[in-house]
Design goal:
By secondary structure, this protein is an alpha/beta fold. The chain has one domain. The chain has helices at about 20-25, 35-40, 45-55, 75-95, 120-135, 150-155, 170-190, 215-225, 260-275, 290-300, and strands at about 1-10, 30, 60-70, 100-105, 140-145, 160-165, 195-200, 230-235, 250-255. The strands form two sheets. Strands 2-3-1-4-5-6 form a six-stranded mixed sheet, sandwiched between helices. A three-stranded antiparallel sheet has the order 7-9-8. Strand 5 (about 140-145), helix 6 (about 150-155) and strand 6 (about 160-165) form a beta-alpha-beta unit. Helix 3 packs parallel to helix 7 and helix 4 packs parallel to helix 5. The longest helix has 18 residues, at about 75-95.
Length: about 325
């Protein structure tokens, strides 16, 4: 069994002044072929999990290209096209394959969105381009960040999308191993994944830590759905609101075994459950003066103030 892997992963802020260029990718990871496997083997990363899955199930993992950059502004179109072109060439050169395992983010933006060549849904573009190369019969699976803006095109082009379900995100390898497990169930057991998306008209608030309520309750509700017969997997995306694109927003995506209507029913149920509790996901936001009074009342010093939007891990220059 032969499976291709690779990916492009970038969390894009359309508001930042931090530019994205070739150096942005080379400073983080721009890896080709075996260098990708050697770098990530044994690590808690998406590619590391794909490697674990290949070792567990005994299939050959064929590396193409992995390009990742720290959060920053939109990737220029020529850079995006060059990276995607390398991945597509690698897939074509691999010959006969049984599946594709991808590391994507889910909140990438390419180029100037006011220009004709801007892309507001690069992950959908990537998945559709790969689908054209491999055809309808080869399963395409991808792992996404929990802060993704999931689009209908992404769901249409992929067989299975699996998002991280921890924040802080400590389950990257685990979720990739699940991708490998699902791929094996498709190839060996004849499962036929049907995936449905429910886009929630909501920006998720500050309460996203999955180990604590209220976010933990949302994950528990997801797990109740995943435990149902004929449900293969499911995910919640809390969105990345600094990407000003049409598909920005929270979502639920559910995969069932050959039952599109059931997948949509479960996605809608969980999406509506989340939306009904929309005030739960937001915490209080005191003004600076109010915060100073709170700190003084606590009587604990020093007091540190942080602007949560001035976050270099989310694209801010700091």
């Amino acid at each position: 069994m032969r499976v291709v892997t690779g990916g492009i992963s970038h969390e894009t802020s359309t508001f930042t002044t931090v530019e994205t260029n070739w150096q942005s990718y080379k400073e983080r990871f721009y890896l080709r072929g075996e260098e990708m496997l050697n770098t990530f083997r044994g690590t808690n990363t998406p590619i590391g999990g794909f490697i674990d899955g290949a070792d567990t199930h005994g299939f050959e993992l064929i590396p193409t290209v992995l390009a990742t950059a720290h959060p920053s502004g939109p990737t220029p179109r020529n850079i995006f096209d060059a990276i995607l072109g390398e991945i597509l060439d690698g897939i074509a050169e691999a010959g006969s394959i049984d599946g594709v395992l991808l590391e994507l983010h889910g909140s990438m933006v390419v180029g100037d969105l006011e220009a004709p060549d801007g892309i507001d849904d690069p992950e959908g573009h990537i998945l559709a381009a790969i689908r054209k190369v491999v055809g309808p019969a080869v399963p395409i699976l991808a792992q996404l960040d929990i802060h993704s803006n999931v689009s209908p095109q992404m769901v249409d082009a992929a067989d299975v999308l699996i998002g991280r379900e921890t924040y802080p995100e400590i389950d990257m390898a685990k979720r990739s191993r699940e991708c490998a497990d699902v791929l094996m169930s498709i190839v060996n057991d004849g499962r036929r994944p049907t995936m449905a998306l429910h886009q929630i008209p909501m920006i998720w608030g500050i309460h996203q830590v999955t180990a604590h309520p209220p976010m933990r309750e949302a994950i528990e509700e997801l797990h109740r759905i995943e435990a149902q017969p004929d449900v293969i997997c499911g995910s919640i995306a809390t969105c990345y609101y600094l990407a000003d694109v049409p598909n920005m927003g929270a979502s639920v995506y559910i995969v069932t075994d050959n039952d599109q209507a059931l997948a949509q029913t479960y996605a809608d149920q969980l999406g509506e459950w989340i939306f009904e509790r929309r005030e739960t996901w937001h915490g209080p936001a005191p003004t600076t003066r109010e915060a100073l009074k709170i700190a003084e009342a606590e009587g604990k010093f020093p007091v540190i103030f942080a602007d949560r939007n001035d976050n270099t891990g989310g694209g801010s220059p700091g």
